[in-house]
Amino acid sequence: MELAFIPSPSRGVLHLGPIPLRGYAFCIIIGVFLAVWLGNRRWIARGGRTGTVADIAVWAVPFGLVGGRLYHVITDYELYFSAGRDWVDAFKIWEGGLGIWGAIALGAVGAWIGCRRRGIPLPAWADAVAPGIAFAQAAGRWGNWFNQELYGRATDLPWALHITSSTDGRIPGYYHPTFLYESLWCIGVGLLVIWADRRFTLGHGRAFALYVAAYCVGRFWIEYMRVDDAHHILGLRLNDWTAIGVFLLAVLYIVLSSRMRPGREAVVEPGAGPDAPSDADTSTAPAGTEGETGTDAEKADSKDAADAGAVGLDKPAAEDSAGSGEPTDADASAARTESATEPDEASDAPSASSASSRDEAGSAKKS
Description:
Elements: E1 6-7, E2 13-16, E3 19-22, H1 23-45, H2 52-75, H3 78-81, H4 100-118, H5 122-140, H6 142-147, E4 161-163, E5 173-175, H7 178-200, H8 206-225, E6 232-233, E7 236-237, H9 238-260, H10 279-283, H11 296-310, H12 315-324, H13 329-366
Parallel strand pairs: 1-4
Antiparallel strand pairs: 2-3, 4-5, 6-7
Helix pairs in contact: 1-2, 1-5, 2-4, 5-7, 5-8, 7-8, 8-9
């Protein structure tokens, strides 16, 4: 009798009324959110915009789910298309069965579409999300625990996984918890990528290639421990050969990329960065004039005001003063002119009177 072991859940689904809540689906959803959250933080740190990772993930995640399911169905077709099997089960993704190789391959196609629509280089985006994908896999592997699947050989270790289900040919007993091994390995891969990215300033897809290579190393020995049915080639499981091939391709990419494109991308997203206009600057600009300092109408008004000031005219000010009943500069000038001419008129009056008196006196003497 085992004194210590990892218990398996009695069931992998809970019902909230008519709505089934499946542990496998929850693990995948948690992994997706974790990858997007961490990828967004890393993308912003590299000079990208907030929300870009999520926008591209809208394309990558559905493609990845379809690709993962296709890889599983193709490599384990006898589970769905052999005698006594129902091919409709191939669409029941909630029952488990996602191949990471197909998920990454077809997910990259979806990511490429999203990056192309945004004018973003796919390798830079892949570098940002690489450790998040590793952590997402670590969370997703716990879905296998809920479904009591993909365990290893029998063992009496204290951390053995206790399988209680007997469906689909399972034999209850104590087995290596390969789901836990891979989950812990993926956490280590994610931390490795974060450290290497900071230490060596990885760019142009090399951080993502490092994640792929490191994951393949762990997947090789973990896959070798599993006892579920699988196709074998030269004594090795199909996924072992896949891990070897993908590992070699990832290492080759790192070597060639380092020689052809050393360093890291200076710009990962057009229009982003500290010199890009802020939302406050662009929100006040009219359509079609983003980044300008004013509209054409405002510039025309400024030019008219400058021309009017150059010739000594200020029509708007004069009209405002007239309309308000206050004296204008013109009225003040006219008043000064009138006051200057009044003394002259007053001084002319006595002179005319004196001249008239002298004339009358002369006439009297003559007479």
